[in-house]
Design brief:
Elements (H helix, E strand, L loop, with lengths): L5 H14 L6 E2 H12 L4 H11 L8 E2 L10 H10 L4 E2 L2 E2 L1 H4 L5
Parallel strand pairs: 1-2
Antiparallel strand pairs: 3-4
Helix pairs in contact: 1-2, 2-3
The structure holds a DNA duplex.
DNA sequence: GGGGTGACCCAGT
DNA sequence: TACTGGGCCACCC
């Protein structure tokens, strides 16, 4: 069967992240679900793992965990960027209820 | 071929 | 709000 190469999957993930408009955010699970419908393979852990390796070229700060928490190690920076883009926040966490976005 | 690992997710305490 | 345990699934060695 023609499973997508890891590099292709990475490209898809990065493409979706780049498509996230300012002031919006997506959770790893959401991206995984979107890619699942597109490439058949997804898992929130996969997306996170990919971001850890190849996320340096995309606005990873717009990607947060499903509970609205920002990535460890860069919270301060991510938070500042999110605030600068008017992303809905709540006590240091992203309010996904308002920031949730979907690539359509 | 087998085992360990993880930018996660959900529910319970 | 924070912490714990269990589950998930592909990646890397």
């Amino acid at each position: 069967m023609a499973r997508v190469d890891p590099e292709e999957y990475v490209e898809e993930v990065l493409a979706v992240v780049e498509r996230i408009p300012p002031g919006r955010a997506m959770s790893y699970g959401a991206i995984a679900d979107y890619l699942s419908d597109r490439s058949g393979r997804s898992s929130a852990r996969l997306v996170g793992s990919i971001m850890a390796k190849h996320g340096g070229s995309v606005p990873w700060h717009r990607v947060v965990a499903a509970n609205g928490r920002v990535v460890p190690g860069h919270q301060g920076e991510a938070l500042a960027r999110l605030v600068g883009e008017a992303t809905p926040m709540k006590n240091g966490r992203v309010d996904l209820s308002r920031a949730a976005w979907w690539p359509e």
